[in-house]
């Protein structure tokens, strides 16, 4: 089974918002990776589609709950590792880059992310992190009052943890997707 088939199978039973988010993040990651001329944009997009597999075992109410208690936060913080493990179960020959992207999509420079607190996440990880955060900020979320952020505001937020060239590639991917 291919990576994409495995991800589709796993996401088929997840809430529709999760599959739709994964699809949008994959499209953004593909476009931005191409603009950055990264070596394997298709693999990056496939890993982006799989990035939230660790949420497929969450209780339904966790997708809309706010505020989160300590136990809920523990589930949130472990989903990248759970996603990596599920991806490996579904696709035992998962390439190392895909594993790193799934596991690292919440890493931030300076060790400020999770699950591993990487001091210097690679450009591919930061690209996926940027695409994921951007889509979360510009989409509707039941737990967030005030509605989604504008494209410009979301890109400014992403720029707080992502190198300028990644932000520029994400902005370019957003423009291409809209056009």
Automatic annotation (TrEMBL):
It comes from the Bacteria. It holds the Pfam family HD_5. PANTHER family: CYCLIC DI-GMP PHOSPHODIESTERASE PA4108, CYCLIC DI-GMP PHOSPHODIESTERASE PA4108-RELATED. Residues 1-179 form the HD-GYP domain. This is HD-GYP domain. It comes from Pelotomaculum thermopropionicum (strain DSM 13744 / JCM 10971 / SI). SUPFAM superfamilies: HD-domain/PDEase-like (SSF109604).
């Amino acid at each position: 089974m291919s990576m994409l088939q495995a991800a589709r199978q796993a996401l088929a039973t997840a809430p529709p918002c999760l599959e739709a988010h994964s699809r949008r993040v994959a499209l953004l990651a593909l476009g931005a990776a191409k603009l950055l001329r990264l070596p394997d944009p298709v693999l990056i997009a496939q890993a982006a589609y799989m990035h939230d597999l660790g949420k497929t075992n969450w209780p339904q109410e966790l997708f809309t709950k706010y505020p989160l208690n300590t136990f809920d936060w523990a589930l949130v913080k472990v989903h990248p590792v759970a996603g990596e493990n599920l991806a490996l179960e579904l696709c035992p020959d998962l390439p190392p880059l895909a594993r790193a992207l799934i596991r690292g999509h919440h890493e931030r420079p300076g060790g400020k992310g999770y699950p591993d607190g990487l001091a210097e996440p690679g450009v591919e990880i930061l690209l996926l992190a940027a695409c994921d955060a951007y889509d979360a900020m510009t989409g509707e979320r039941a737990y967030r009052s005030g509605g989604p952020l504008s494209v410009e505001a979301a890109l400014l937020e992403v720029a707080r943890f992502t190198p300028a060239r990644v932000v520029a590639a994400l902005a370019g991917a957003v423009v291409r997707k809209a056009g």
